[in-house]
Amino acid sequence: MTHEMPTLDKIITALDLTLLTEPRSFSDLIPTAGYTSDLLSCVMANAAHQGIWITLQAHSNIVAVSALLDLSAVIITEGAMPDPGTIMKANQEGIVLLSTDKPSFYIAGRLWEMGLRSE
Amino acid sequence: MKNFRADLHVHTVLSPCAGIEMIPPLVVEEAAQRGIGLIAITDHNSTANIAAVQKAARSHDICVLPGMELQTREEVHVLCLFDELDQAEELQAWVDKRLPDIPNNIDFFGEQFIVDETGDFIRREERLLSTSVDASITEAWHKVDALGGLFIPAHINRMANGLMALLGLVPTDIPIEVLEISRHITLQEAEKKYPQIRGYPLIQNGDVHYLDDFLGTTEWIIEKPSIFELRKALRAQDGRSRLIHPLSSLIA
Q1: Which residues pair with A53 in a beta bridge?
Q2: Could you tell me the pTM of the whole model?
Q3: Calpha distance B180→B163 (Å, rounded)
Q4: Is the predicted ipTM greater than 0.95, yes or no?
Q5: How many domains does chain A have?
Q6: Which residues of B touch A39 (CB under 8 A)?
């Protein structure tokens, strides 16, 4: 790694993300990479473990896929909102769900600027 | 018990992506010629041509179930099948409130014709039907279930609007009873490619957009065509069952 990787708490603050799941300390959580897709099959096949995933899908299967890949966090874009059952499931599985009104392209661009890469 | 070769996923000229030949008399004639005794009319987000096909089918020995191919917010396509037109029309009222008001671009998407039982033009559907209804797959399931319908994720193996591509896994927050595979995959290939669908009953339909698309590979052994009987067949209860014939056996 040639550059310093941002911690999740820095990402949340810089991108003004809303935490949907239970608060906890993110100051030592460093996502390994970023990935963007709204096709969950592609995410399952291609997203990096412990990575951060940007999507506008808010269906509860995002929790199952995140748990499968042990993702650091999911950023749900364009104001899409998972239902309470999905957020509850995420809390049970220890998955971090974040929300923003911004589009996926903007979030991906900002994460890239902060030093996150695709793998 | 009776045997019905079926195609429960048939579009008409109301679906912008369907051929102009998909008018009621030709739809029922083609199905009859192929020995298909049970069809469901499932236009995209609309039920407006079902009654016309049902009327056209009176002169044939074919049962026409009312249905709709609904597109959820996740862009998943789902067949919603009913016994009575009233139920489908109740779903239509629900869908109408949630379908975005985007005018159809005929040059790009195609015509959306509402026709009578002879295929004569009545009017155009002005709203674009090939788009997502603002409801999640979970909300859609609850609505269809409350109306007594059968909810079947469509062509789950297809990249475009298929459940496996979009959601990766079969949702477990709703009790999915059956999954549809398209003509592009066999039953065995589907089970091998998607271990996550193990235990879910599968059916195959033609997703008929042109007369040549009729398949009739799924055979239902039921007392009569009804949602109740189809459900029993999916659970292999009381002597009811279903089987999927290989496509090759029909071509030969």
Answers
A1: A35, A74
A2: 0.92
A3: 10
A4: no
A5: 1
A6: 159, 165-166
pLDDT value of residue B247: 85
Give residue-wise pLDDT tens across range B55-101: 999 999 999 999 999 999 999 999 999 999 999 999 999 999 999 99
- Lowest-confidence pick of A68-77, B3-12, B217-226, B241-250: B241-250
* Sign of CA pseudo-dihedral A90, A68, B192, B236: negative
- CB-CB under 8 Å, A60 with B171: yes
The shortest CB-CB distance from A40 to any of B159, B168, B173 is to: B168
- The secondary structure element, H or E, covering residue B121 is strand B121-124
The C-alpha atoms of residue A118 and residue A65 are separated, in whole angstroms, by 18
**What does the pLDDT look like over B100-157, one tens digit per residue?**
999 999 998 999 999 999 999 999 999 999 999 999 999 999 999 999 999 999 999 9
Contact B169 A43 (CB under 8 A): no
How far from each other are the two terminal CA atoms of chain A, in whole angstroms? 11
Segments forming the whole domain that contains residue A97: 8-113
CATH number of the structural domain spanning residue B88: 3.20.20.140
- What the block records as the tokens of B10 is 């048939």
What distance in Å separates the CA atoms of residue B236 and residue B18, rounded to the nearest whole number? 34
Q: Write out the two tokens for B156.
A: 């789950």
Q: How many structural domains is chain B composed of?
A: 1
